[in-house]
Design a protein that fits this description.
By secondary structure, the protein is an all-alpha fold. It has 14 helices and no strands. It has one domain. The longest helix is centred in the N-terminal third of the chain and has 31 residues.
């Protein structure tokens, strides 16, 4: 047995304090590793790819009764990565490093040459996957969606940055992302017949993805303001809480429609998981802020850029469908 010295009058508190400090160090190491991992995925834009391919699996397996083909996964994943990296590289070109900024934009600014080379290589691979692997109907649908994405890029980066158009950035990304992950099913048609359930699920996905984008923008509001990046939250801050309420309603609605067998089980379970996993930590912090008597801005929006709850919102959006895939494989 080790000889443990305890100061007079403290009982076994010295042992307890030492154990608590050791446990705290273990927790901090685990939390630090988790944050670095999530930040790495975010900086390299891999988290967006994970969100896309996992939700594609949910929709294709749920509505089309099959697994996504490799060409479909590679085409969607590559396209999403190309769009996100291009968008961030363009933002990083005008980044003012002397003002507050996000981790991912600084990463893109510092590694612009490397990311440009990787972008070119991924572009070649994605084009090969699209042209050689996709069916013509899916290819036509993808080209139509690509045109919408190109229009989005022109509005955001090649115009005079109209405040009204800029404020639609997050909702536009949410809708386009939902259409991208459901494109194969819309082109192929649901296996059970009828597009009503698919439409409901696509709208639910658009709400969820839009909420994610808006929450990230809200968490990075000060950095965006300092850099001159306009967002939906900056122009319409009053719309944040109604959007969150609607997002929470997706969970009971998905559960009820899944129970009634209107939605495929995998789709209903993924939505039921995703909403509390993504929004739960924020609600907890809001509640704890109220309990502790904290006043002023929402405590959920006061974490540093690129870490903590902002990174969790992106992580949760791929973690929930991944858990559904594992559970219902």
């Amino acid at each position: 047995m080790a000889d443990v010295r305890v100061r007079p009058g403290t009982g076994n508190r010295g042992c307890v304090d030492r154990s608590n400090r050791r446990l705290s160090r273990i927790r901090c190491v685990g939390l630090g590793w988790g944050r670095r991992f999530a930040e790495g995925l975010n900086c390299w834009s891999i988290d967006a790819v994970l969100v896309a391919v996992f939700w594609q699996w949910i929709f294709v397996s749920g509505f089309a009764d099959r697994q996504p083909r490799p060409s479909e996964v590679l085409s969607l994943g590559g396209s999403v990565w190309l769009i996100y990296v291009a968008d961030r590289l363009l933002d990083a070109r005008q980044l003012d490093l002397t003002r507050p900024h996000t981790v991912r934009h600084r990463f893109m600014r510092q590694h612009a040459a490397l990311m440009t080379v990787l972008w070119t290589l991924v572009l070649v691979g994605t084009l090969a996957s699209v042209l050689l692997g996709l069916e013509m109907a899916v290819l036509r649908g993808g080209l139509a969606l690509a045109s919408a994405v190109l229009a989005y890029g022109l509005v955001v980066h090649a115009t005079n940055r109209s405040a009204r158009l800029q404020s639609l950035k997050e909702p536009a990304v949410g809708v386009l992302f939902a259409l991208g992950v459901t494109l194969v099913v819309w082109v192929e048609g649901p296996a059970g017949g009828g597009f009503g359930p698919l439409l409901v699920a696509t709208v639910g996905a658009a709400v969820l993805f839009t909420a994610n984008c808006v929450l990230v923008a809200a968490g990075e509001r000060e950095q965006d303001r300092q850099q001159g990046f306009l967002s939906f939250v900056e122009r319409r801050p009053e719309a944040l809480h109604p959007l969150l309420v609607v997002s929470w309603l997706v969970m009971p609605l998905a559960f009820a429609l899944g129970y009634a067998e209107y939605l495929p089980a995998r789709v209903a379970v993924a939505f039921t998981f995703a909403v509390p996993v993504m929004l739960g930590p924020m609600v907890w912090r809001l509640v704890m802020g109220r309990v502790s008597g904290k006043r002023g801005p929402s405590p959920a929006m006061e974490t540093p850029p690129g870490v903590g709850i902002q990174t969790w919102w992106d992580t949760a959006l791929w973690l929930a469908p991944a858990a559904t895939m594992w559970w219902m494989a």
